[in-house]
Amino acid sequence: MTTHQLCDILNQFAPLSLQDSWDNSGLQIDNNNAIVTGVLICLDITEQSLQEAIEKGCNVIVAHHPLLFQGVKQIGHNNYIHRCIRLAILHQIAIYANHTPLDKVQGGTNWLLGTQIGLQHITYLQTGETPSYGIIGELTQPMDQTAFVNTLKEKLGIAQIRGSQMGKTPIKRVAICSGSGSFLIDNAMACQADAFICGDLKHHDFHKADNRLLLLDIGHFESEIGTKELFFSLLSKKIPTFVLHLSEKERSPIYCY
Ligand SMILES: [Zn+2]
Question: How remote is the CA of residue 182 from the centroid of ligand 1, in Å?
Fold first, then answer.
C-alpha cells in the first residue's frame, strides 16, 4: 500500500472537506508516496514521536492534531515544529493528521468517547448541523453525580477530573465535546443535559454551570487519546496489524506536581 492510499482510507471515514478554516488536516509532509513500511499512530506529533517512528521503522505518522497549522516561512532549530519537519524529511517520514473532520464525523472522536462511557441514543448536540461538533446521549440508568464521576474515572483511566460543584440531580443525559469544547456549554444546557464533558474548561466556564448541570473537564489529552484506537481500527481493516504501531511513548504534555 502506498502512503496516499493509506491517507485515502482515513479521508474516506472523515472527509477533509469537513475541516474548519483554521484547521490543517490532511497529508502535511509527503514521503514521495512511498510504499508504507510502518505506521506510528499518535495524538500529537513531537520530536519524541518522530524518534519512535524511526526506531520502529515507520515511514508514516498518523496523528489527530496537525503538526503544521500556519505557514512556515523559515525552518530553524529553536522551535520543536521546525525540528520535527527536519527529522521527517531527513528520514522520509510522511506526516498525516485528521483533526476537526474526525471530531465531527459520526463514529469519530466524540462518538467514541460517548460509547466508552456507556451512552445510548447518541445524536449531534447542535441539531440541524450534521456533521458537527458535540454529541448528546443517555445513560441506561440515571446515576448520582459522585457515582457518575467515579465511573468516568474508571472507564477512561483518569486519576482526577476537574468539575463544577456537584448537585443532587441524577445524571441521565450527557453531552460531550472532546478537546476545547467549552463553546458548547450553552448548547448542552439548551438540550437539557445533566452533565457536559469536555477537555479544556477555563475558570469562568465553571461559573456557567450555575447549578443547572455538572461541568466536567477530563483533560484535552484524555478526551482525545481514544483517537489512536480509532485510527488503528480504521487502518487495520485494510492493512496488516503488524505494520501499525500505537505510540507507546507519548503522554499528556501537562504534568501535575
Ligand atoms: Zn484536540
Answer: 12
